[in-house]
């Protein structure tokens, strides 16, 4: 598992940003392996990508609520699974991989379920909004 962890500099190069940005992301919740005195020792490239993608999704949605790093990762992961399909064995392995940061299986499961509920609520809100907009347009053209 630790073979997938890279340095702060390598993550910065991969995303085309500087290390200051990576430090800011870390303060914003980007998960990392801890070294001495709680300093980052390494970043899992896949987890960084899921976190970054989830964060961008929330920004695009203009979501201002408080979401943990684990929930951000799960949100992004679930959005991807909706497009490509979910494999229970792979998801179990993915969840197990998140334990390296000290998350318990219960915390991981709770985050997965919380984000599934959030996505259902968000999707429902979008459907209601689209229906209202359609009705408004239909009513507007009648006048």
Q: Largest beta sheet: what is the strand line-up?
A: 1-3-2
Helical content, roughly? 55-70%
Secondary structure class reads mainly alpha
Q: Detail the poorly predicted runs.
A: none
Q: What is the general shape? A: elongated
The helix/strand series, from N terminus to C terminus, equals EHHEEHHHH
The overall pLDDT average reads 85
- Strand fraction: 5-15%
Q: State the total count of DSSP E strands.
A: 3
Q: What separation lies between the terminal Cα atoms?
A: 64 Å
Describe the structure.
InterPro entries: DNA-bd_dom_put_sf, WH-like_DNA-bd_sf. This protein has 143 residues and is mainly α. It has one domain (2-142). The protein has six helices and three strands. It has helices at 8-15, 19-27, 45-60, 69-84, 88-98, 105-142, and strands spanning 5-6, 33-34, 40-44. It has a three-stranded antiparallel sheet with strand order 1-3-2. Helix 1 (8-15) packs across helix 2 (19-27). The protein starts with a strand and ends with a helix.
């Amino acid at each position: 598992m630790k073979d997938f962890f890279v340095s702060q500099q390598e993550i910065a190069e991969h995303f085309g940003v500087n290390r200051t940005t990576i430090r800011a992301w870390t303060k914003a919740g980007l998960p990392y392996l801890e070294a001495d005195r709680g300093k980052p020792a390494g970043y899992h490239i896949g987890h960084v990508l899921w976190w970054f993608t989830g964060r961008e999704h929330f920004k695009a949605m203009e979501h201002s609520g408080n979401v943990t790093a684990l929930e951000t990762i799960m949100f992004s992961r679930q959005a991807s699974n909706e497009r490509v399909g979910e494999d229970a064995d792979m998801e179990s392995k993915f969840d197990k991989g998140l334990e390296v940061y000290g998350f318990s299986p219960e915390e991981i499961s709770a985050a997965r379920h919380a984000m599934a509920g959030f996505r259902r609520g968000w999707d429902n809100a979008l459907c209601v909004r689209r229906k209202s907009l359609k009705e408004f347009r239909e009513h507007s053209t009648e006048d």
